[in-house]
Design goal:
Its EC number is 2.4.-.-. The protein has about 375 residues and is an alpha/beta fold. It has 2 domains: about 110 residues, no CATH class; about 240 residues, Spore Coat Polysaccharide Biosynthesis Protein SpsA, Chain A, CATH 3.90.550. It has 12 helices and 9 strands. The strands form 2 sheets. Strands 3-2-1-4-7-6-8 form a 7-stranded mixed beta sheet, sandwiched between helices. A two-stranded antiparallel sheet has the order 5-9. Helix 3 links the parallel strand 2 and strand 3. Helix 1 crosses helix 10. The longest helix is centred in the C-terminal third of the chain and has 26 residues. It is elongated, with a radius of gyration of 22 Å. The termini are far apart. The mean pLDDT is about 90.
Length: about 375
């Protein structure tokens, strides 16, 4: 390889290295300053848990009792039966008779009026009797019976309007599961650390809370009702401020989810989520795009520099420095976020992460999806 070409590649690699180190040390490292509560909160704030479910009879049978039996004195659970035809209606009717806390809202669909998750959630929110709303999905289960208690405790501060929780996926065998879990952890590190810096840009609907008053004051999902995704991240992106948003990371506050089991299903999910990114605030799109592109280019340039000397030695040195910095910053975070097993495999997982992050980011901006289930 020509020496001049090596210099150009090393120069570009150096720029990407600096950008990545800034994100790592100045942004993501902020999450290490978070200290969760050590004791169960005593504050009792009335809470309405809202779940939208379409053809989820198996998940509702398995997971809903864990939510209905939470260790919390004042809460209700609203399940929106969103046009289900799998027997969910009968199941929910039986559970409603068994659990006084359960309230079922039924949404029906016609040829002239097609519903979506945002419409179903809006119906659930309207039916909620409490101002503090806690959201999750039918395929999710709390890590403990104190999930509501830890999430709701954040509303003791009257300025708090949005609480960002965390929802890891179950650990299973296989490459797909590793990709899903690693991406979930990296995404969480990004949005949780951003919130701690007063720049919250998204949340995850599997474990998210906000006030009913806030929802109706901003006209709910009206500004992005025309797209299927975004009931969680777009709502947070448009309405979070440095003063009204906090995070909750006590282990008991986590919500676990079953991961996708096929690359096709996972791909469709990622395309749907990526499509909402087009409506993020400009500053957040720049922030996320800079991280994604610089991360991918760092690895591409690194591998390119391995083909020649002396560029190879400088490239390897930069790679090692970044890897050691990642271990230093991520060790506590990955342990907290249920990903301790990734610590020593970060270079491999991180390379794949930035590769498909850019692929799905590009595909998500070009392709539309017309359904959420």
């Amino acid at each position: 390889m020509d020496l001049q070409i090596q210099e150009v590649l090393l120069g570009l690699l150096g720029i990407c290295f600096i950008i990545q180190m800034v994100y790592l040390l100045a942004y993501q490292n902020k999450l290490n300053a978070y200290n969760p509560l050590t004791e169960l909160p005593e504050a009792v704030i009335p809470v309405s848990v809202v779940i939208s479910a379409r053809n989820e009879i198996e998940n509702l049978t398995q997971n809903l009792p864990a939510i209905l039996n939470q260790n919390y004195p004042d809460f209700e659970v609203i399940v929106v039966n969103d046009c289900s035809f799998d027997g969910s209606a009968q199941l929910l009717e039986e559970l409603e008779a068994q659990y006084p806390r359960l309230k079922v809202v039924t949404v029906t669909e016609t040829r002239k009026f097609k519903t979506g998750k945002k419409f179903a959630l809006t119906m659930g929110i309207k039916a909620a009797k409490n101002d503090c709303l806690l959201f999750t999905d039918a395929d999710c289960v709390p890590a403990s019976d104190n999930w509501i208690a830890f999430m709701a405790a954040n509303f003791a501060n009257p300025e708090t309007q949005i609480v960002l929780g965390y929802s890891p996926y179950y650990r299973k065998r296989g490459l797909l599961n590793s990709l899903i879990r690693f991406e979930t952890i990296k995404t969480a590190i990004n949005y949780l650390s951003a919130a701690m810096r007063g720049n919250a840009y998204m949340g995850v609907g599997r474990n998210l809370a906000y006030r009913k008053e806030l929802f109706f004051s901003v006209k709910g999902f009206a500004s992005h009702m025309h797209i299927m995704s975004g009931d969680d991240d777009l709502f947070v992106n448009q309405n979070a401020t440095p003063a009204n948003t906090v995070i909750e990371l006590h282990q008991d506050s986590f919500i676990f989810s079953e991961p996708k089991t096929s690359f096709g299903a996972w791909g469709r999910q990622k395309r749907r989520h990526a499509g909402a990114g087009k409506l993020y605030k400009a500053k957040h799109k720049r922030m996320l795009a800079t991280d994604a592109v610089s991360g991918l280019l760092f690895y591409l340039l690194f591998f390119s520099c391995l083909a020649a000397e002396p560029a190879m030695y400088i490239a390897v040195s930069l790679f090692i420095v970044r890897w050691l910095a990642q271990i230093l910053v991520y060790k506590k975070q990955f342990t907290t976020l249920q990903g301790k097993d990734f610590i020593w495999y970060i270079p491999i997982a991180d390379t794949l992460y930035y590769l498909y992050l850019n692929i799905f980011g590009l595909v998500g901006t070009l392709k539309k999806t017309n359904q959420w289930k």
